[in-house]
Each structure stands twice: as structure tokens, then as C-alpha cells.
Amino acid sequence: MSGTSMDGVDLSLIKTDGKKIQRCKKNFFLNYKRSTKDALKRVTSENNFNKTTLNYLDQIITDEYIRALEASNFVNLCEVIGFHGQTLLHVPQEISIQVGNPKTIANKFRKKIINNFRKNDILNNGQGAPLSPIYHKSIIEDLLMPLPACFINIGGISNLTYWDGINLFGFDTGPGNCLLDEIVKKYTNEEFDNNGELSLAGKVNYKEVKKFLEDNFFKSAIPKSLDKLYFKKYLLDIDTNILDLNDKLATLSELTVISIINSINSMPNKIKSFCITGGGYKNKYILNKLKNSIDAQFYDLNSYQISSDYIESEMIAYLSIRRLNQLPSTFPSTTGVFKPTICGDIYTV
Hints:
With 349 residues, this protein is an alpha/beta fold. The protein has 2 domains: 2-126 and 312-329 and 341-347, Nucleotidyltransferase, domain 5, CATH 3.30.420.40; 133-295, 2-Layer Sandwich (Nucleotidyltransferase, domain 5), CATH 3.30.420. It is 40% helix and 21% strand. The protein has helices spanning 34-46, 51-72, 102-109, 119-123, 133-142, 178-187, 197-200, 206-213, 216-219, 232-239, 245-265, 284-293, 311-324, 332-335, and strands at residues 2-4, 8-16, 21-31, 80-83, 86-91, 95-99, 112-115, 149-154, 157-163, 168-175, 273-277, 297-299, 345-347. Strands 10-9-8-11-12 form a 5-stranded mixed sheet. It has a 3-stranded antiparallel sheet with strand order 1-2-3, with helices on both faces. The protein has a 3-stranded mixed sheet with strand order 4-7-13, with helices on both faces. Strand 5 (86-91) and strand 6 (95-99) form a beta hairpin. The longest helix is centred in the first third of the chain and has 22 residues, at 51-72. The mean pLDDT is 92.
């Protein structure tokens, strides 16, 4: 199974019936070539999604996946490959663009491919995201986390799953690492704020945080989802501010923290437990602030041999088997879809 960030390909091998998961302790990451990263950055910054460009990206992303699958040596061990592709654009309820060719991968490895997970949800009036709540729910149940519980995933965009034994809610809470990464890449030679060290050395400008939080997104009802480019206008405002680099990053990290806490506080019942995954787990500013601010038991997934780095790749594998077993993956309370919806297209050789 495979899943991507803008940096590379994550692979996870699991056994599942689409309900329970057995982890095989086999994960693999392949960093994109510099030329691939540059092409993705150029296209997304220009919003240039014409047919020629998409065909070109289809080819290079497919090649990256093939390279990763060959290097991992997982293919001979699996029956099905879940292939999310690389997301370029996500406009809730309208369009979600992923590149990568599942047919090429199916033909290359002679395996069944599950792909295009957002399409059916959008066709049924859903946001198309987040896809993860049903998978997060399975982890909450496997770990016997006290309910109500929240699963906080901090990737480029942060999303939250709430499960109380009856109600399953899922929605994007706001920016995760996407704005932080943009600033770090612009002013340093690094790709991200390593361990949140730059943010920890800065001071928060709460005036800027308040300006962010006045955006209509934070006032809108759930379920809701975001594209990572949504907050670009505010990023420009912070970047042209007289704040130094550390203060800019502290301010953006604080925005991530407050938007998550506000989201948890909006849930119908006070939570008793929570966990944190994604790149934000490694940002000590964000992680420590959340752990100290949320009055509930913290579950460190790494203590249960669940890698926070491979949550998305496991999730796509899980959703792939749900598709094969005709189990729904999105729900009215997680994406706003009309009815519980089976997600994904099947490609066979």
C-alpha cells in the first residue's frame, strides 16, 4: 500500500479485513527526487492544472511510486495496493485533484489497485475529506482509549476525529505544518522546523493569531475541510510583518495549537483521551502545548508500536480493503456526504 506527502512516498504493509488491523512492522519511505519536488512546487504555486501539466505530473509521480514499491520489496508480500496518488488541489464539495496512474502500476506489478478515494464522496455531496475518521476510530477502539476520545492528525492541514461510542465526527481544524514549512523553506536550507526548535525560540504575536482565527472557516459548521493553500493570504501578512523568523514560526505554531483546542472544545462532550500523529507530533512546541492544554489522558501511539509517520499510508491500505469488502468509508458526520459511502475505484490487470 502507498500514500504520499509533497516530500515522498510512504509505504505500509498491513493485514486487515477493513475493520481490524494487524500491523506487519513493515514501513518504508522514499524521498522524492529534487526535480519532482521542484515540479510540484511550481505547479501548485502557479495553480497551473492544464492537461499537459497533469499528464506530465501523472508520469513522474507514477515513476516515483514504482521506484518506491520496487525498493521496499513489499509487492510480493501483498495482495492489493492502495494508491492515493499526489494531491495537488482540494476544493471541498467541488474537486480534488490527485496525480499518478493506477493502471500503469497495476500493469507493472500485476496487482489489483484501489485508487480515487475522494470521487464517490464528492459525487454524493461530501467534502471529499477527511477520509481518515473511520480508520482513526479503529485505532481508538484497538487501544481501548477511554471515550469520548479524539484522534488529532497534524499534517499539512490538521484534522480531528471524535468518537464517543455513538457519534463519529471528522473535520479539518485548520493549518498544521503547511504554513510553517513554507516559511522555513523560504528562509533556511531546511524543509521543516526540526523538533519545533525555531518555534520554541520565538514569541507569539497574538494579534496575528487573532486575525487568522477571525476567518470564516473557523466559524463554519462541521463537517468541513481545507486545501493547504487556503490560508496563503494570512501567511503573506505574517511574512511581510516585522516579526523575526522565530516569532513568525511561534505565531504559526500557536495558531495550529489554538485551532485544534477550539475544535476539541466544540465537541458535544468533554473528551477523556486523545492522541497526536503526523508531522506535528515531532514539533515539540505544538506537541507540548497540546499535551499541557488538553485535560485528558494522552496516548503516545509509538508506545503501542504504531508509527505516527505512517498513519496516512496505513489508512489508505485500510480504506482499500473496505472498498473491496463493500464497507463505507465516509459518513454524513465526517464529510457531509448524503449517506454512508463506499469509496475508491478498482483497477485490475
